[in-house]
């Protein structure tokens, strides 16, 4: 009981002492702050050994296990260090910078230039009149081609030939009207005007057909159809026979 009583007196006395004479903050030893090493460009975190350092203090300063410190730096079991020795204490994770999205409305979206395409026109000799270019029906020369766009900015002309389709290249995409006038002596077997919507990268071929006009039948002439002498003789005999028969009938009636 005496020991407990004495201990209580000592604790009470100390408590009273600190209340009367409080410890001032400026009398406390300054707190030691250790700067965290900055990772190198390759991500390695290096610590340089200072005087008085050992594996325990370095482990405590940099929050790394002693065994991990030994493993990273191939240190011996006694963890012998030298002043200014560089120790690897970690590897920082590399972060990939994400592209910053541009807020909508701040930068105008670039407008792609319009595409271009080709329009080819074939006028073929539609000999069978089926409005389709068959294998034995060849291109027809002398037709007049006209290519115009809906906005009136394009107006192109050319002539068809007897070898291949005629092409208008690198036209801006849009709505076009293509027309063909057949050469003289031919009649169209297809429509002579065709609309076309041309998209970028297209190469469109339009077929137009025509066939020779029908020949008129010329009236026969004396040179082309001369009279036959046999037909003349037969005609004369028939005329004379008719006259003789009439004279005989007349004499027979008088005799009665």
Automatic annotation (TrEMBL):
UniProt entry keywords in alphabetical sequence: Membrane, Secreted, Signal, Transmembrane, Transmembrane helix
Superkingdom assignment: Bacteria
Principal location: secreted
Region ranges (Disordered): 203-226
PROSITE patterns: LYSM
Subcellular location: Secreted
Transmembrane portions of the chain: 230-249
Name of a matching Pfam family: LysM
GO cellular component terms, A-Z: extracellular region
Gene3D superfamilies (UniProt xref): Immunoglobulins, LysM domain
The LysM domain, residue ranges: 45-89
Protein name per the record: LysM domain-containing protein
Organism of this sequence: Leptolinea tardivitalis
